[in-house]
# Entry
Amino acid sequence: MKRAVKIAVVLLAVLAAALAAALLFGAEWATPFSTDVGERAILFDIRLPRVLLGACVGASLAVAGAGLQALLRNPLAEPYLLGVSNGAALGTMMAFVVFGNYVFARPLLAFAGAAVASVVVYSLARTRAGMNVERLVLSGVIVTTFLSSVIIMLTTLLDAARLRSFTFWLLGDLSQATWSGVYLSFGAVVIATIILTSQSRALNLMMLGERDAVDFGVEVGRVRLLVFGASSLVVGAAVAASGSVGYVGLIVPHLLRLAVGSDNRIVVPMSAIAGAAFVVLADLAARVAIAPRELPVGAITALLGAPLFIYLLRKN
Amino acid sequence: MMQVRFFEFRQFVVLALAFVALAGVSCSRPSISNQNAVPDNTRVLKDALGRDVSMPRDVKRVVSLAPNLTEMIYAVGGGEKLVGDTTYCDFPEAAKSVQKIGDTMSPNMEAIIALHPDVVLVSTASQIEAFMRTLAERNIAVYVVDARSVEDVLAGLLTIGDILGTRPKAEETVAALRQRLDSVRSQVDGKATRRVFVQISKEPLFTAGREAYLNEVVRVAGGESVTQQIPGAYPNLSRETASKLDPDAIIISDNEGNHEPDSAFANSAAVKNGQVFRINADLLARPGPRIVDAVEAAARDLHPEAFKEK
# Structure
């Protein structure tokens, strides 16, 4: 446990540094000590909620990825590959189409979409003989591609003005951060991290094989339900707030496992902290790289994530 | 065994029917390519990409792949030659009932060919690669009209008038538009230049950058775009930068999801003084004849005192 504390301290220091850098830099210069109304507006109304939302979204996607990878014993298990993200994205789009800009519709339908996608994947994968991991991943791929085609059809049917904001949003975009979005994502990610961490011992045992886990007294069905429920919650909140920021759920838990081993009691909660730092830094790059113009953060996470991943794989 | 034979028979019937249908089609359409091969009937015009495009002297059928081009065709009196347009083409009213061939992003090649146009008018260079060859093989000319300024729009109207054989009407239209532009210029002349932010989209925040013709629209209307130095035509602008611009007027390209100024402008002079104006996105965003309507609307919004007694 001493090791866990050490890792937590290091990661929290990284996160603190990332937050500090993200608050200090942006398209415009603004310091917290300034008395200028304009500078204070930039810092507190625009930059601060955006940075905090980025942290929540990163933590959400990473912790959901860590939980799903452990549950399914598959390194490729990730909110995207399992259709959870696309379910949330479709839910959010339906909220736009049916309810317009009604504030609560987006996160609620996003959560519903993520949950429905999870349940469908889960029940498709379930056989009389029990859960089959290959079958689950396969069902995830099928549901993902099906939902993708529905999303593409919807964007084609929407008129041109909406199309632009959707294509942007599908790449992940934090520029519309609001305080209500921050509170919602923060609440969701705290609850989900607690739930997933509470299941991390059971997840460790399940990695030995489900039958062995049952012998150790693990209630496999309950663990599955909790992990799927918690991931749907965070992914729904994250997608509703910022669209589909890719790669985070795949990259962050993997990097952590390469660095600290595969004990889920460490990997799951630490993924939240590392994911927060990763997205905060990626969004910093998206904000300053071509200022005063902006890039979608999803493009940066993919751009940074892939080479970083390959480097670490080769190094070990 | 019986079943297999039955299917073979069915396949034969289907094939035979297909042959008959094909034969019918090719009989009813004697090869169009031959009649155009006579040089006297064709002419060569340079398009916006500098390509030499040859087309019949007497263009009878034209397809438009962009709403601004459709508006231009009607404005020069070529409406009755328009046999196909896009689902975006909704002005003038008559354009709605023209055969639709898909939208600007993904026009349907088969639908275009089926209309047997002499010329297809295209608005951007990016569209052209995909179907140049296919259409060229069928002697359908693809002509690019790329309007990047108000002057381009006027020149485009004359060119389309040339193509459709309605040059006199086109000249008339252009003269009338020029007169309206001059009248705006003279009315805002001497008035203090307004600092204008043009909001193209709210989520995410898009504005008019260095390459946008909207800078010119704002300038003629007696203003100056505060984002005209930013690279690109329609840059995605940092909201931090937006909050520092402090424009004294905001023009919103009024469209779904874009009715209110971004909250980054809450402290700007424009919002404080109620200088937020909405202009229909169809006027602002289409470089066609109605761009002059947009100029007039912007001028009235920015300098209401100049238009009071006239």
Q: What stands out?
A: Residues 2-315 of chain A form a domain with the ABC transporter involved in vitamin B12 uptake, BtuC fold (CATH 1.10.3470.10). The CA atoms of residues 115 and 232 of chain A lie 5 Å apart. The radius of gyration of chain A is 19 Å. Chain A has one domain: 2-315.
